[in-house]
């Protein structure tokens, strides 16, 4: 990105069932964006998952990564949604500053129609 002069305005990290990552490496990469005040959306889907228990395991893993980036303070706005980071920074016209969101999408119900 640096070589190409790319300056992202928003980062979306998507994790799916069956995928394996090193949580510390992912946290380090995303932390780099957070330090540059780039908002992060971490999306977890269990579209290929067999159960809601698998989704819960993915959420726990996602919370581990997001806690490593933003600290263990999050606000839950629903069963599958957690907000991280600071409130809106009024000095930059209300743009999010170092914020993140973790969203779990339980798409098992739709797996038969795809």
Question: Cα-atom Rg, whole angstroms?
Answer: 15 Å
Helix share, percent: 25-40%
Q: Show unreliable segments.
A: none
Beta-sheet strand percentage?
15-25%
How many separate structural domains?
Answer: 1
Q: What is the H/E order?
A: EHEHEEE
Structural class comes to: alpha/beta
> Average pLDDT, to the nearest integer?
77
Globally, the shape reads globular
The count of strands amounts to 5
Overview of the molecule:
This protein is α/β, with parallel strands linked by helices. The protein has one domain (11-109). Helix content is 28%, strand content 24%. The protein is built from 2 helices and 5 strands; from the N terminus they run βαβαβββ. The protein has helices at residues 23-35, 52-70, and strands at residues 11-16, 40-45, 74-78, 81-84, 100-105. The chain has a 5-stranded mixed β-sheet with strand order 1-2-5-4-3. α1 (23-35) links the parallel β1 and β2. α1 packs across α2. The longest helix is centred in the middle third of the chain and has 19 residues, at 52-70. The radius of gyration is 15 Å and the shape is globular. The mean pLDDT is 77.
Main traits of this protein?
single chain, 114 residues, alpha/beta, 2 helices, 5 strands, globular
What is this structure, in a nutshell?
By secondary structure, the protein is an alpha/beta fold. The protein is built from two helices and five strands, in the order βαβαβββ. Helix 1 packs across helix 2.
Topology (elements, then pairings):
Layout lengths: L10 E6 L6 H13 L4 E6 L6 H19 L3 E5 L2 E4 L15 E6 L9
Helix pairs in contact: 1-2
